[in-house]
């Protein structure tokens, strides 16, 4: 299944981040008005443009090489695909059309939510406009030509709507007979997007897919089984859906997957180490790098890293974005050493130097996966990025 690969480093760079940033107060206020339909999209865009200029400067000031637009134009991290692709209809869906075993859906049920905004595929899926290409062009206009290769685009995962609504309520069965047909067309759309971003100069794409970590959560596994589903078959289907998006990419394009257990205003939804999914994911998923949440015990220990193939890199999300606590350089270094220990403890033979070369460090998730942001300040996020850069310089001497 996997393409022949070589280890991709730079990007990812030694000190990374997951892409979303705290919205400045001016944008935050405008977004509040926009959500209440008291501000137009065009009016909001002016504030987004300014916020993106600011966040580019903040990333440069912090010394990170990777630059994103901070997801300033998005309300939620996965926006940009299902709201733009032809064949998807946006609508409020009653809660019974959401799968209760999905960790963040459990919260909807627990809170007595009656319905939520989502999508239904009622026609053949076709990419008729770029998902993130216009955003990329704007970001590109803000940096020097030699910095374009440092820009990172984050995008939602192909299985995001499917995990909520399942194979029975994601698409019209007269349009697609099964998941394979649905994900095949979605894969074509993603590959068109990837090709266009590449042509514009993009060399670093991160697909955000918290769903994979949901498969680390025993409560979800039990819930799926109770619903008559085979969790392993579902995980395989989502790996396949991702591979349809990344296959055939140019060798000098780094494509990775970010996985975490949820990140909404400082909250998480799932728990459990990577051991349940590591062998399958590290080997079968056709990506160059894994951006792995690792800030607390909810992600388990580093043991699963012993399965990481030598051709793939892992970005350890050691620094939390869920609160203002600032990890020390020594704490971060200790954890990197523990990760190297784990990588050298398995059947894959590698030196400590080779293991270290497969690693980078980052924040565990974004600072604002939703526009409201996590309970931290703009100063906190700058300090956290600077701390990652400082640590990376000491460890890798690059
Ligand atoms: Zn995340």
Automatic annotation (TrEMBL):
| SUPFAM superfamilies linked | UROD/MetE-like
Kindly state which keywords UniProt assigns to this record, in alphabetical order: Coiled coil
Q: Which GO terms describe its molecular function?
A: 5-methyltetrahydropteroyltriglutamate-homocysteine S-methyltransferase activity; zinc ion binding
Q: Where is the Cobalamin-independent methionine synthase MetE C-terminal/archaeal domain?
A: 17-89, 180-371
Where would one find coiled-coil regions in this protein? 30-61
Q: Please list the GO biological process terms of this entry.
A: methionine biosynthetic process
Q: Which Pfam families match?
A: Meth_synt_2
Which InterPro entries does the UniProt record give? Met_Synth_C/arc (IPR002629), UROD/MetE-like_sf (IPR038071)
Q: Matching Gene3D superfamilies, A to Z?
A: 3.20.20.210
Question: What is the protein name stated in its UniProt record?
Answer: Cobalamin-independent methionine synthase MetE C-terminal/archaeal domain-containing protein
What organism does the UniProt record list as the source?
A: Crucibulum laeve
């Amino acid at each position: 299944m996997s393409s022949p690969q070589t280890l991709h480093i730079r990007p990812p760079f030694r000190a990374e981040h997951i892409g979303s940033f705290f919205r400045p107060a001016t944008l935050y206020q405008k977004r509040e008005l926009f959500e209440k339909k008291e501000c137009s999209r065009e009016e909001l865009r002016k504030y987004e443009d300014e916020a993106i200029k600011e966040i580019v400067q903040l990333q440069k000031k912090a010394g990170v090489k990777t630059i994103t637009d901070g997801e300033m134009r998005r309300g939620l991290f996965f926006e940009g695909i299902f709201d733009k692709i032809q064949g998807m209809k946006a609508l409020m869906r009653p809660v019974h059309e959401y799968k209760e075993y999905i960790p963040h859906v459990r919260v909807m049920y627990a809170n007595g939510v009656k319905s939520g905004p989502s999508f239904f595929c009622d026609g053949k899926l076709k990419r008729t406009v770029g998902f993130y290409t216009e955003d990329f062009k704007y970001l590109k206009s803000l940096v020097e030509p030699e910095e374009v290769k440092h820009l990172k685009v984050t995008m939602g995962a192909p299985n995001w709507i499917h995990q909520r609504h399942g194979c029975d309520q994601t698409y019209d069965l007269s349009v697609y007979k099964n998941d394979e047909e649905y994900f095949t067309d979605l894969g074509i759309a993603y590959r068109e997007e990837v090709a266009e971003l590449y042509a514009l100069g993009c060399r670093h794409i991160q697909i955000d897919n918290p769903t994979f970590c949901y498969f680390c959560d025993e409560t979800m596994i039990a819930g799926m089984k109770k619903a008559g589903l085979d969790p392993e078959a579902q995980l395989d289907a989502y790996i396949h859906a991702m591979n349809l998006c990344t296959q055939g990419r140019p060798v000098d394009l780094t494509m990775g997957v970010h996985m975490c257990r949820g990140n909404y205003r400082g909250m998480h939804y799932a728990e459990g180490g990577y051991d349940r999914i590591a062998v399958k994911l590290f080997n079968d998923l056709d990506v160059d790098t894994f951006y792995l949440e690792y800030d607390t015990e909810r992600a388990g220990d580093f043991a699963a890293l012993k399965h990481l193939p030598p051709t793939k890199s892992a970005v350890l999300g050691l620094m939390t974005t869920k609160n203002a606590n600032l990890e020390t350089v020594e704490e971060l270094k200790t954890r990197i050493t523990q990760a190297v220990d784990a990588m050298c403890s398995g059947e894959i033979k590698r030196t400590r130097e080779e293991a270290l070369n497969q690693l980078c460090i980052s924040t565990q998730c974004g600072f604002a996966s939703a526009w409201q942001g996590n309970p931290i300040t703009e100063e906190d996020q700058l300090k956290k990025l600077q701390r990652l850069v400082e640590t990376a310089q000491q460890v890798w001497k690059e």
